[in-house]
Amino acid sequence: MMRIALLVALLLPVPAAADTPVTLKSILLEQLKTTHDVKDWFVPANVAVEGLTLEQANWKDASGNHSIGQLAAHLVFWNQQQLSKMKGEPPPKYSGNNDETFENVDAAKWAATVQRLDTVMTAIESLVAAADDKTLAAWASPVAHIGTHNAYHVGQILYIRKMRGWWDPEKGVK
C-alpha cells in the first residue's frame, strides 16, 4: 500500500478544478489518454500515426532503426499483451524475441495496425475506468509502464516524421 501511495504522490497532477479529487484511477487514466488520443504535454499516438502513407510508414534509415509501421505494430503487440493479462485471458503468443514484435506492414496491415492501436488503447482505458480500487492497485505499475512505453515510441514516431518533413507543426502541442 505504501508503494501505491508513493506512486500516487509522485504522479499527482494539478486537478482541473479545486473540487475534483485526484485518485489513482484519475492519474492512470490521464496517463493512458495522453499517450492515446488527448494532447497534453506531448502528441498522442493517434495524432502521431494519422495521415501517413504506406510508403511513409515503411521508411527506414540505413542504420537498422525501426520504421513507423514497425513501431506502431510493436505498440499494438505489447498493449494487447497487457490488455489480455488485465482481462485474465491468455496473451498473444510471444517467442521471447522482442525484435519479432516490430512487424513489417503492407497496405492492409498498416490500416489495420492504426485501427488496432486505437482499439487496444481504448479497451485498456475502459478496463481501468471500470476497475475497483483493489484491482487498480494491482494494475498500477503495469498501467504506468504502458503509458511510459507508449510515450517513448510515439516520440520515436514523431522524430522520424519531423526528420523526414512529414510532420505538420499545427498538429503539435502548443
Describe the protein's architecture and organization:
The protein contains 7 helices and no strands. It is mainly alpha-helical and 174 residues long. It has a single domain, classed as Four Helix Bundle (Hemerythrin (Met), subunit A) (Up-down Bundle). Helix 2 (24-34) runs antiparallel to helix 6, helix 2 (24-34) runs parallel beside helix 7 and helix 5 (68-86) runs parallel beside helix 6. The longest helix is centred in the C-terminal third of the chain and has 32 residues, at 133-164. The chain is globular.
Strand content: under 5%
Count the strands? 0
What is the averaged pLDDT score?
A: 91
First CA to last CA: what distance?
37 Å
- CATH third-level topology: Four Helix Bundle (Hemerythrin (Met), subunit A)
- Give the count of helical stretches: 7
Which descriptor suits the 3D outline?
globular
The appropriate CATH architecture is: Up-down Bundle
H-E order? HHHHHHH
- How is the biggest beta sheet arranged? none
CATH class: Mainly Alpha
Tally of structural domains: 1
Approximately how much helix is present in the residues? 55-70%
